[in-house]
Amino acid sequence: MLACVSWFETFKAFGENRIDLRELVYSVVLILHPTVLAIAFEILKTERRKTWLAIHDRNIADLPKRLRQQIILFSTQLLHLRPTFSIAGMYSVDTAYILQMLGAVTTYLSILLSFR
User: Fold this and answer.
1) pTM of structure
2) Which residues does 42 contact at the CB level (< 8 Å), separation at least 6?
3) Is the distance from CB of 53 to CB of 39 less than 8 angstroms?
4) I need a surface site. Which of 27, 75, 89, 101 has the fewest CB within 10 A?
5) How high is the pLDDT of residue 24?
């Protein structure tokens, strides 16, 4: 909601030929920060899967017993403990959340612009 109001004020400033660069940068950062985090989390999930596949496809029979046990444990953890990222334990941060946030911002902006 804060990003929506900030973007609306920036849009009004464009119409009045007065633009505050700080406000524009702040509103862009409000949107970009969670988006960059969600992209990083998706990359992490992809790399986790690639790592699991690389470990799982290796022949570990000729390795020492202790190293074999550690590799098996690590592979099991990669398979079963999927990372989830949340905001204060309330909302899961993923691409679906970011798309919902952008949809809400778009809706609020269209409502604010219709009252202009």
Assistant:
1) 0.56
2) 94, 95
3) no
4) 89
5) 67
